Amino acid sequence: MDDASASVGAEAAGDRHSSVVFSTDAEWADHVVAFVRTGLRRGEQVQYFADTTDPGLVMRTLADRGVDADSAVRRGQLAVTTAAETYLAGAAFDPDAMVGLWHEAVAAATARGHAGMRAIGEMSWGARDVVGGERMLEYELRIHHEVFDRLPLTAWCFYDRRLLPHDLLDVLAGAHVTQLGTHGSPDRKPGMAVVPLADRPGLRLAGSAGYENRHVTASAAAALARTPAQRVTLDLTDLDHLDAAALTDLAHAAIRRPTDAPVQVLGAPLALTRILELFPELGRGLEMAG
Predict the structure, then answer these.
(1) Is it the case that residue 56 has pLDDT exceeding 90?
(2) Given this model, what pLDDT does residue 190 score?
(3) Which segments of 43-178 does DSSP mark as H helices, in order?
């Protein structure tokens, strides 16, 4: 972990970037009130990015639960805006622009004397036909290290189970080191899961990487290619199957990275080593370990 990461504080990045899945309005309200109340008490600036929820309902819910939201807004400690003004402000959803926006927003909050920043973002727009929406998983995977490892920021990504398809919800909510709320049956697992590594830049893939979840592999590859970290780890220990196309995506991403350091691969399945023996050019950006 670099010096910027260490300066954030003792609370780990994985504990400050969480997915929150809920199924009822009451669950939503409980999460919102607890999150906002904690931030106001800590002297943090709190922001809520609404999508399907009326911003007025957010304010009324806080007031009904005993939070003086109006006073917090007047003193600049609370703001309720919309996804259209943040995530979707440009012509297309752009993870690079959002990473920059987080850095700017936290810098502005601390410059105003706040102890840090805390935000809730409704992610239900990911289920709609939004330009750039296919990059949402890439975004969730990248910001763990590009944002939360570096900034005094706590954010909960809100996923309403009633608004997202189950498969999409499982993958997006699962792309967080910390997962809160109601996640349904513990026996129900996505065909493939990808999550940031908690202790170093990199990703852990689990399940089966094949044709049926090519979009998940593509997002993991995009996150791998664009991470600015010098050293990156790809943990395949829990991967049951990796087809040639998925391997090609990941291998090409490793070659495209902005640094010359190879991607360290942990727990490589036997099939992977055999493919690399047949096509050594795919291994130029990979370093087998473990």
Answers:
(1) yes
(2) 61
(3) 55-64, 69-74, 95-111, 136-143, 166-173
DSSP, residue by residue, 143-155:
HIIIIITTSSEEE
| Cβ atoms 142, 224 nearer than 8 A | no
If asked whether residues 67 and 161 sit together in one domain, one would say yes
* Close Cβ partners of 6 (under 8 Å, ≥ 6 residues apart): none
Same domain, 223 and 91: no
Task: Please give the single-letter amino acid code of residue 124.
Answer: S
Same domain, 11 and 116: yes
How many structural domains are present in the chain?
2
Residues in the chain: 290
250 to each of 2, 242, 264, 274, how far by Cα in Å?
A: 25, 10, 12, 16
Identify whether the C-beta of residue 230 lies closer than 8 Å to the C-beta of residue 259. Answer: yes
CB contact at 8 A, 8 and 149: yes
**262 secondary structure, DSSP code:** P
Percent of the chain past pLDDT 70, that is, above it, reads 93
pTM of the model: 0.91
Pair 12, 198: CB distance under 8 Å: yes
pLDDT beyond 70 at 197: yes
151-163 per-position pLDDT tens digit: 999 999 999 999 9
Task: Please check the confidence at residue 78 and state whether its pLDDT lies above 70.
Answer: yes
CATH number of the domain to which 170 belongs: 3.40.50.300
Q: Is the pLDDT of residue 182 over 90?
A: no
Decide: 247 and 272 in contact? Cβ < 8 Å: yes
Please tell me whether residues 160 and 179 are part of one structural domain: yes
- Assign 260 a pLDDT band (cuts: 50, 70, 90): confident
17 SS3 class: strand
The boundaries of the domain holding residue 44 are: 1-188
- Tell me: do 247 and 261 sit in the same domain: yes
126 and 183 inside one domain: yes
